[in-house]
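User: My advisor asked me to double-check a structure prediction for Universal stress protein before group meeting. I don't want to rely on an old file, so could you generate it fresh from this sequence?
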Amino acid sequence: MSGTIVVGVDGSGTAMKAAESARDLAVALGASLHVVSAFDEDHVEVHGNGSDQLVMNGADVAEHLVQTAAKSLGRGLTVTSSTVPGKPAAVLVEEAARMDARIIVVGNRRMRGIGRVLGSIANSVAHNAPCDVYIANTYDAE
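Assistant: Sure, here is a fresh prediction for Universal stress protein from the sequence you gave:
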């Protein structure tokens, strides 16, 4: 199999564990990996204090996340990345359609207990994906 596998990152340990599963799957299947991060356009982070402040908007933070993840995942593998404003589940589905992806990899975080009732990214992606969805076990990541 060739094609593209899409995975999202958000800076959490569970998302990185899902990304590592996506990398392993891409290597095993001879596919490329596309790392995506969704962001809120209104989000701003301020680091430091006084005159030594660094202000980053949501796009900057997302770009840092995908670049860091792509660098750590990309050994011996074709890895691309993108940042897209919007909700994580919708962004994953949109990017998978845009990339004509074969598989979206998501973690199973929030698929138990109250998160299962209220919904999860994995659940939303599984119901709306234009391709196969692989749900990686990420419960022991954080």
